[in-house]
Amino acid sequence: MSLNIFWFLPTHGDGHYLGTAEGARAVDHGYLQQVAQAADRLGFGGVLIPTGRSCEDSWLVAASLIPVTQRLKFLVALRPGIISPTVAARQAATLDRLSGGRALFNLVTGGDPEELAGDGLFLTHEERYQASVEFTRIWRRVLEGETVDYDGEHISVKGAKLLYPPIQQPRPPLYFGGSSEAAQDLAAEQVEMVLTWGEPPAAVAQKIEQVRAKAAKLGRTVRFGIRLHVIVRETNDEAWKAADKLISHLDDHTIARAQASLARFDSVGQQRMAALHGGNRDNLEVSPNLWAGVGLVRGGAGTALVGDGPTVAARVNEYAALGIDTFIFSGYPHLEESYRVAELLFPHLDIERPELPKSAGYVSPFGEMVANDILPKAASQS
């Protein structure tokens, strides 16, 4: 099975070390363009663009990078409860057309109640997933060309429709990551790609089995992906030294502050990440070559595969054997590490290489729209 390998755009910041301004670099459009173009040239299939108040807006970043890349796909965030599903469908179709069919979408329910309140969303964890299900049902159907009437508990629309379709048919794929029971139910019903953060293989296998079983009951199959950092070097010893160097500026106070901030999250996935290290820098290798040091101060993906090319490839293939076909990697700093991963890891993996995009043009058969709608063609006169 050929693997899809994605990279990460660090729109929240980048640098040589975690938890310090030393060795940090400014993240501006020029730098993001460098990272995206490197990923494009090196053969990464796409880039994940993060979302949240600490990040540049993922949709605007993706749109700005379309003209400077050729093959790279952009995985951007859909935020239920913050935007209308109909408006989000129009934006999704536009991004797909303008990029030549390179748009992918990542459903993000959010896990930080404080941040969500700042965006005007005050739903509980369970309510957010209920709203996400309603959002996704509408979003999918509108993108697939239906005119939708929907009266839900959280979202209602009447006559929702899309006039200009996306290039990818029936619509661009939907990605989603979540570990709770509610998240797994949503994934089984609604999405094509289920993502997990980098837990030990046994824990990942259990999650895959659970989601597969839920999807099978609905007559569906889903694919699986994993989000991991990578620290790959020419030797295992060099890789582990690089891992230690990455957190060399962290002190106990910085770790404690970061963990206290992350503790307010109601995300089950975040809780599982924190449990791997317990806020303690001792015994960070939580599974062979799986290192939890990143999660000491970083939310979300908190583990890295560490080793030389053949060793990391062996760990990647262990996850692939569980049914994972998509790997979303990152490393600090992201520009240099994209080259290291491509040069030291790619030769040891069977990787699917992206093709050139399709034409992005779309011409309405009715010419210019009249009255904000498609009108029937006039009957031909004999």
From TrEMBL:
Tell me which UniProt keywords the record has, alphabetically: Flavoprotein, FMN, Monooxygenase, Oxidoreductase
The record places domain Luciferase-like at 5-325
Family that this chain belongs to: Belongs to the SsuD family.
In terms of Gene3D superfamilies, this protein maps to: Luciferase-like domain
Q: Which reaction does it catalyse?
A: an alkanesulfonate + FMNH2 + O2 = an aldehyde + FMN + sulfite + H2O + 2 H(+)
Q: Name one GO biological process term.
A: alkanesulfonate catabolic process
* Enzyme class (EC, first level): oxidoreductase
- The protein, known as: Alkanesulfonate monooxygenase
Q: Extract the InterPro entries matched here.
A: Alkanesulphonate_mOase_FMN-dep, Luciferase-like_dom, Luciferase-like_sf, SsuD_RutA_monooxygenase
Q: Its function? A: Catalyzes the desulfonation of aliphatic sulfonates.
What's an example of a GO molecular-function annotation for this chain? alkanesulfonate monooxygenase activity
The record ties this protein, via SUPFAM superfamilies, to: Bacterial luciferase-like
Q: E.C. number, please?
A: 1.14.14.5
Q: Which CDD domains is this protein grouped with?
A: Alkanesulfonate_monoxygenase (cd01094)
Against PANTHER family, the record matches this protein to: ALKANESULFONATE MONOOXYGENASE, ALKANESULFONATE MONOOXYGENASE-RELATED
